[in-house]
Design a protein that fits this description.
Helices cover 36% and strands 23% of the residues. The chain has 22 helices and 33 strands. The strands form 8 sheets. Strands 7-12-8-9-10-11 form a 6-stranded antiparallel beta sheet, covered by helices on one side. A 6-stranded antiparallel beta sheet has the order 23-28-24-25-26-27, sandwiched between helices. It has a 5-stranded antiparallel beta sheet with strand order 31-30-29-32-33.
């Protein structure tokens, strides 16, 4: 299957993240359904341009993939898998948008497609509406009878694509640091050479130092007339790359090549990344062996107290190296590595954790016993590859059987293998063995196709390490790139060469949309000096161009004290080709521009991850730890309330609320509580927030900011009906929180992660509003004060110090509970609390999207040490 590939960088085959806020995703799409026609208005002078061969074949490929993705979407809808459906639907929308942009520009070539695109757009809007409401029957109807047929008709409009297949494809076998002939085993190279001859392709072998971009030539190694020769040759049609690395670790040469030539291989991340994605998207998560990331010795000791036995694996590791089996009995710990074993007491075991595990990144995992009747550990390796048609195939599936004296089944550590069916029949009997063989093959294909889908169809090869325990339950230990193929190199080469030819013929190239942007920083045309880079950590603050620099100055002072380098940069300050940044360094009381390498950690004050137009910034810096991993849009208030309420531990501070489905929901709340707050599900800065109360004369008093109006029930219903047509709202009991002067107020608790990655209080202060019932920011007229003095003046009957401690306790509980619900990392949170007439605190809102700052230095004193913690953790 071809990814929604990359005309002008419109989509990203690496992107694996579904929209975090589904309702927002749908609303954005529906509200901006005509944005492309507006964007291209006035470009009629371009309509006579002819599509290039690349563009023709790419839009055809996107169209093919749209059909495949829609079929997958229909399957998920039939299974009522909401999150999976949203993820795939988002990809379908992206593919549609990619085609729409090209058709809008190249109108002459693609007139026949315009009508189909208009119908598809309407189908997508209807699908989004009903998917949002989880109306699965209606979604199925739209897909089956409208969307899919229209996509197929659109596809037929692209069938007359010009043939661009070369008579002979040249495949580049590439490794960044060394020529592959020095890295690959001889058997693999021989198999590739043999298969390339059979499939009539040329092979060249090269590394980054062999590439000359000025001449567009490569000094490659080729095998001719029975010997290796060095020749100068043109760039290849496709590159089969060895040693998949994270984007920020790729060399400049590799990054440039990726923007010019199709690459076959993209990674699935380390041992932690893949299971985290599977848990996020839920499907197949039951195959995962439970694990925890080791960040301190308590995690290991607590895990062993519960499980007694565990396996410890490096998060980045291969071939069964540095894997330990630990068994606890009383205060003794047996630590086994391969066939070596030692027994440690508690103190020695803690020392071992510090010197062996915490120096690197490890995970602790439940020990799943999978042994033969003879006591030999075994697992099943499924080597999966895409073939010459771009379809997944099982290249080989086989058991890896280790010594009974070892915990490992890895063949590279002395194990053996045999035919899978033979082993399964021997261990489980004829009927069960044959059935398990069939089920493992089916699972391998389904799991691989699923993993490819959540990686936007960019994978080409996987090694699945599966296990089957004595009860017959299947487990997934891990999935990795570039699996070993010592005993089946020729079978592997068939698919390696076939898929590379397939990629070349379909011209699947990843472009970067900022590559030729005139606004983007260009090192080659800059006369700026280079910053001196030393062994200290580099912390980069990503911010907007117009952001106030008070926090940046404070961070610069704290960074100097902490002995780390600090600079700020904006999205336009990145040179994507050279992997360098125009950073702003604070020196002698002023900001100085210098060219600097990418940072070790990014303090994200830009906060636009996942927002269209800015995705490429975050994709480019993928792999560098960010202080905040949340998407840039505000979190749904309803989602937050529902999650917190589900614990039943915070009921005493959660204000009664309800999602508004009908106007009667609002009126019922008004009848029950007298006064309510009506606010948008998503939003900030009190936009769209209404105070509504019922008066003695059966009239209704409505306040929005400084606008106060009286309504009859009829006029209120009309007003609310118009309001609800514009978005989704929550109704909530109004907590009367006022100063002795009658002004509304709340308590803002701003918390940050500290140098130990623990939550600390950055600031706590009252915010006093100038309107009737809502709090204004200081920028729009609101004002703040000191907490203790404020409490003593406005709540004189309460003990201010005791009340402050109560506020802190509530804030800590909410923050810890909120954090437990999300896998995404974030270092900052702000809570808005109300105090009722008895000074009891209630939670109004949770804000993780760039909360306002009052004391910049207090924030910097926590933000910089926490960034250092992230850098230290990543480099261990």
């Amino acid at each position: 299957m071809i990814p929604f590939s990359s005309i002008g960088g419109l989509t990203n085959r690496h992107s694996t993240h579904p929209p975090k806020k589904h309702v927002i995703c749908f609303e954005i799409y529906k509200n901006n359904r005509y944005k492309y026609s507006r964007h291209y208005k006035g470009v009629s002078s371009m309509n006579n341009l002819a599509l290039t061969d690349n563009q023709f074949i790419q839009i055809k490929n996107i169209s093919d993939t749209l059909i495949e993705a829609t079929v997958h979407f229909a399957k998920n809808i039939s299974k009522r898998e909401f999150i999976q459906s949203v993820h795939i639907f988002s990809s379908i929308v992206e593919g549609y948008e990619a085609i729409s942009k090209i058709v809008a520009v190249y109108d002459t070539d693609l007139k026949s497609a315009k009508d189909f695109l208009k119908k598809i757009e309407n189908n997508l809007v209807l699908t989004a509406t009903h998917l949002e409401q989880k109306n699965y029957i209606k979604v199925t109807e739209i897909v089956q009878f409208s969307l899919l047929p229209n996509l197929e008709r659109l596809n037929k409009a692209f069938t007359n694509v010009r043939s661009i297949k070369n008579s002979t494809i040249t495949i580049g076998i590439y490794f960044d640091k060394q020529n592959p002939i020095e890295v690959y085993p001889k058997e693999r190279i021989d198999a590739l050479l043999k298969e390339s001859n059979l499939q009539q392709a040329n092979l060249i072998f090269f590394s980054s130092e062999d590439v000359n971009f000025e001449t567009k030539k490569i000094d490659a190694s080729v095998f001719q007339d029975g010997e290796w020769k060095k020749v100068s040759t043109d760039f290849p049609d496709v590159i089969n790359n060895i040693g998949i690395t994270a984007k920020h670790q790729q060399s400049i040469t590799e990054r440039k090549l990726r923007r010019m030539i199709p690459f076959t291989s993209f990674g699935v991340g380390n041992k932690f990344h893949l299971p985290a994605m599977m848990v996020k998207y839920r499907r197949f998560a039951e195959l995962l062996v439970p694990f925890k990331v080791v960040t301190d010795e308590d995690i290991v000791n607590e895990y062993l107290s519960n499980e007694q036995m565990a396996v410890l694996k490096p998060i980045s590791g291969a071939r069964g190296e540095r894997i330990y089996f630990v068994k606890k009995k009383g205060n003794r710990f047996t630590v086994s590595e391969h066939q070596q074993e030692r027994i440690l007491n508690q103190d020695k075991f803690n020392d071992w954790i510090q010197t062996t595990l915490l120096k690197f990144s490890y995970m602790i995992q439940r020990y799943v016993e999978c042994k033969t009747k003879d006591g030999e550990p075994f697992d099943i390796r499924a080597h999966m590859q895409k073939d010459k048609k771009g379809k997944w195939q099982i290249t080989r599936i086989y058991p890896r059987i280790g010594s009974k004296h070892s915990i490992l089944s890895n063949i590279s550590r002395g194990g053996r293998t045999e035919e899978l069916k033979t082993l399964l029949v021997k261990e489980f009997g004829d009927a069960k063995g044959r059935n398990y063989d069939k089920e493992l093959r089916k699972l391998s294909l389904e799991l691989t196709e699923y993993l490819d889908r959540i990686h936007n169809f960019s994978l080409d090869e996987l090694g699945l390490d599966l296990a089957i325990d004595k009860t017959g339950r299947f487990w997934l230990h891990e999935a990795n790139n570039g699996p070993q193929s010592t005993y089946h190199e020729e079978a592997r080469a068939v698919n390696t060469i076939g898929y590379a030819i397939y990629i070349a013929e379909n011209r699947i190239v990843k472009h970067n949309q900022f590559q030729n942007s005139p606004k983007q920083f260009n090192v080659k045309t800059s006369s700026l000096p280079f910053a001196k880079v030393d062994s200290r950590y580099r912390i980069g603050m990503l911010k907007s161009k117009n952001e106030d620099d008070k926090l940046a100055v404070a961070c610069a002072y704290v960074a100097h004290y902490e002995n780390v380098q600090f600079y700020t940069f904006t999205p336009n300050d990145i040179d994507y080709n050279e992997m360098l940044i125009k950073g702003q360094f604070y020196e002698n009381g002023k900001w100085v521009s210098k060219i600097v390498e990418y940072p070790n950690v990014i303090y994200d004050r830009f906060r636009l991850k996942g927002v269209k137009g800015f995705n490429s910034v975050y994709e480019e810096l993928e792999g560098i730890p960010f202080t905040n991993e949340f998407y840039g849009n505000s979190i749904s208030k309803l989602e937050v309330y529902d999650k917190l309420k589900s614990t039943d531990e915070l009921n005493d501070i959660i204000i009664p609320y309800k999602k508004v489905e009908k106007i009667r929901d609002i009126l019922q709340y008004i009848d029950e509580y007298g006064a309510v707050i009506l606010k948008p599900e998503v939003g900030s800065f009190a936009k769209g927030v209404h105070y509504i109360s019922k008066q003695q004369n059966n009239k209704y008093f409505v306040v929005e900011k400084d606008k106060e109006t009286d309504h009859s029930e009829i006029s209120l219903r009309k007003y609310l009906n118009e309001l609800l047509d514009r978005g989704h709202f929550i109704v909530q009991q109004y907590i009367n929180t006022r100063t002795i002067d009658g002004q509304p107020f709340d308590i803002r608790v701003h918390m940050m992660k500290d140098r130990n990655d623990e939550w600390s209080f950055a600031s706590i202060y009252p915010r006093i509003g100038i309107h009737y019932a809502t709090i204004s920011s200081t920028g729009t007229g609101g004002y703040i004060g000191g907490l203790i003095g404020f409490l003593e003046r406005n709540l004189p009957m309460k003990q201010s110090n005791k009340l402050e401690q109560t506020i802190k306790t509530v804030a800590k509980n909410v923050t810890n509970t909120f954090t437990s619900f999300y896998d995404e990392r974030f270092n900052e949170i702000a809570l808005d609390l109300a105090l009722n007439t008895n000074a009891a605190p209630y939670l109004i809102e949770v804000n993780v999207n760039k909360p306002g700052i009052i004391s910049h230095f207090d924030i910097a004193q926590l933000a910089i040490p926490n960034a250092i913690y992230l850098a230290e953790k990543t480099t261990k």
